[in-house]
Design goal:
- The complex is a heterodimer of chains A (228) and B (804).
- Chain A folds into 2 domains: 126 residues, Rossmann fold; 75 residues, no CATH class.
- Chain A has 8 helices and 10 strands.
- Chain A is globular.
- In chain B, helix 2 packs antiparallel against helix 9 and helix 21 packs parallel to helix 24.
- The chains are: A alpha/beta (228), B alpha+beta (804).
Amino acid sequence: MIKLRNIDRYIDKRLQRNFILKGIDLDIAEGDFISIMGPSGAGKSTLLNIIGFLDDANEGEYYFLDEPVHGLNEKQKSEYHRSYIGFVFQAYHLIDELTVYENIEMPLLYRKVKGSQRKSMVADMLDRFNIVAKKDLFPNQLSGGQQQLVGVARALIGSPKLILADEPTGNLHSDQSKEIMETFKKLNKEDGVTIIQVTHSDEMASYGDRIINLQDGAVTENNPYEEE
Amino acid sequence: MLRNYFKIAWRNLVRNKSYAVLNVLGLSVGLACCIIITLYVTNELSYDKFHDNYNELYRVVETMEVEGKEETYASTFSALAPSLKNSFPEIENITHLYPVAGLVTGPNNKKFQEDKIILADSSFLEMFSFKMLLGDEKSALDQPLTMVITSSVATKFFGNENPVGKTLSFKDTRNVFDFEITGVVEDSPSNSHINFDYVISYESLKSLRPWEYNVKYYPPMYTYAQISDPNTADKIESYLPEFSSLYYGEDNSYMNAFSLQPLSDIHLRSNLQNELSSNFDITYIYIFLAISGFILIIACINFMNLATASSMKRIKEVGMRKTLGAEKSQLIRQFLSESLLMTTLSLAIAVFIVEAVLPYFNIIAEKSIEFSLFSSWEPIVVFIGLILVVGTISGSYPAFYLSSFRPIQSLKGEKARQSFSSIFFRRGLVVFQFFISTGLIFGTVIVTQQLDFLKNSKLGFDKEEVLMIQMRETSDQINANSLKQELLTVPGVKSVSAASGVPGIASGIHGFTVIPESNRADSSILQTLTVDFGYLNTLGIDVQQGRNFSEEYGTDEASAFIINKTAANKFNWENPVGEELTLKYWLADQVSKKGQVIGVVDDFQYNSLHTSIDPVIIHVLKGTYYHDYLALKLSTNDLQSVISDLESKWAAFNPERPMEYAFLDDTFDALYRSETRLSNIFNIFAVLAVFIACLGLFGLASYSTEQRFKEIGIRKVLGAKVTDIVRLLGKEFTVLVFISLCIGFPVAYFATSKWLNNFAERIDVSIWLFLFSSLTVLFVAWATISFQTVKAALMDPVKSLKSE
């Protein structure tokens, strides 16, 4: 599904080039549940952003579903965002001016889903995450865990093939974190959704099938568990 | 999707109430100004266009060379119309238009002194579309001694009765005639340059003033022609010079030439001698349109600035929408629809503002402009256009700016750093706003100063406490001396003098041929004022050389002249006293007066200061029909009783007419009425423009303080004083305002200089005016900003640090 070849991401300063990512090679198959780990500043988020088309690599090749991403224009990228990729962020990034219902509905608007169908899809999601009662509240009226549930619901409503989660449980306490992770696990097993998450926590990483360790912009360990 | 956009826009509005209010308020005030100016300009542009065939109507005007200067007169004379019609059969219709004044007496001896009476040919009502209510427009003015009156005159005299067939009597200077009413027209619309209450058939002139009927050169009246084919009009126009020289023959020493002026040019593009009514000037139309454009631009800039500044808060939303698959174009559409929403809202408020303010504006502008949104399709179309244009202009920059953020920048949670170009752009906009405001303030100051100057300085006579009584009847004029003696007995009256004119009144000064005996070839037509003894004293005009007229000499009436300095210069007389002159009366060459210059007066301002001072010759005649006015110098604390005493003396003298009087200072101020009016309107809009610009500055200042909330907190913790903070925050904007001052002044200086050149007497633009205006702008800007900065500087630092 995802094939990265020799990806470089750097920032040019006046006298030197600072590499955030250097020579990344990575293959991810459909149905994988991958955790990216590593110390702060290792480039985990940047890697995730590049995979999610939110950031561009300076060098290297990236194939998504065998399609070369480096050749896509902005419009095509939006198309992929709509149809294939869902994002979950540490800071939830819900739109403050919209209610829970409207936040979840928004991706459907960009996919031009019809009104009645939209209604049933959102109702489905609300049901699935047990937040029907909260549908008319605004994000700042919810707890962190509830906000993240909404964030996940929003990511899922477009039935994406790939979910990218940047420290989804970073701001949550352990019970809430577990709930989110169970949801991911279920999605991965039952619906075959590919999931890539960035995390600091070994416990959260263990929900995945495979761990990628990043250090100073390079992959140091690919799936350490298998070697044990 | 659109609903979603509007929902977000609305919730954003509600959440950021203060910014929304600033934005919408600024924009709606701006739009309201625009609408009002547009209504005003439309009204001025609509003059004389209500005539069905205004495109076919022309006024015949006459250009002549006077003292080497070409002057064009709007008026011609009575014999011209029939001659033109004879020479050019292509002219379908032609009419005289001769404004006269007189006393109209109706049933039950109801009397009114009426000024809006015109004599016109029977074709007048067909050529012009004044709406006939009763009577037949083709034949109503056919017969001598018939008249058509307006409906308000009909009501005044006859109430609800049908006036057709009844009579009104009219008395001008000598004789009384009865006129049969043959029709009633609607009152002439306010946007007509021809305004009348009565139309008397032109044929009546034969009875009224037979010596004026179809004569050359005289009396000044207007000639209008109807030519339906523009090509024919061009052809006639090209033959007119030839016609003129044939018409005048050997007489044509003043190079008289006739030409056609389209009716629709009269109100805006004509500023001739002897205009029928005071006209507007197309340049003022351009100035007002420019001001309305400026105000709109300032309001749009506010919108752009505030929207971009507040976009910092929306960056996260943009990023999230992009990761959810929004395309750039969709985001642009979203932000544009937001600004359209805001514009619509503002326009709705603007309409209310206009409705509320228009009556007051009408008072200031002396107009009766009406505004009704749903009366026709035009305003609706214009408004939709306005919403689209304003919404798009003001929304486009924020839309493109916001939508261009890369999602990852915006999602990182940090406040996105603003690029240099965007800051530069925004500052440029503020500079531009204040550049315009500076220009407007400077312009306002100059205009006000110039008007004060016109009204108060260097008149050369004393306009205070001078009362003028108008004498309309020849018998009164000739017997003025006995009235004069009577009036002098009234306590409070210091002196009385009869004269053909007084300063400030357009008429009363006559052009007569003056021949200097020392150089007879230098003869020319000069302005002549006919007065009696005591005139110069009554008006406080000082004699600089020689002496004043005096009865003691016994010869002054027959052979003495006083001239002004300009006249002395004209004849190149270094010592004019003793020079000999001959004064030839224009109408009757045999009447002439030969005499000596006995005195020279300083130039006094006879007309408005638009016109430069011409040579003036003053001479004495007693008991003459030239004397239209009595000038009275008063000295009293009880004006009311003096006036009622004067009125009773007048009533004994002429029981037929009420006394007509005016104060010289009022009359003189009235000369600058149109300027005063324009300057008032100009001031209002200038202040509003500055106000809107300040709203924007206020908004920006509050944003920039908000963004530096934390910085201010840290600085305060580190020991910064309130004044330090205020200075820190004020610096940026002060620099911007200062830059706009530097750009604004040269431009404003150039523009106002051009305007000032319209005046013969003008102020010099001094450095103090610059300083005064700059300080005003700086002060206003500082006051605006300091509201925010002081608030920020006084806040508790703990709060700002905690909030981060």
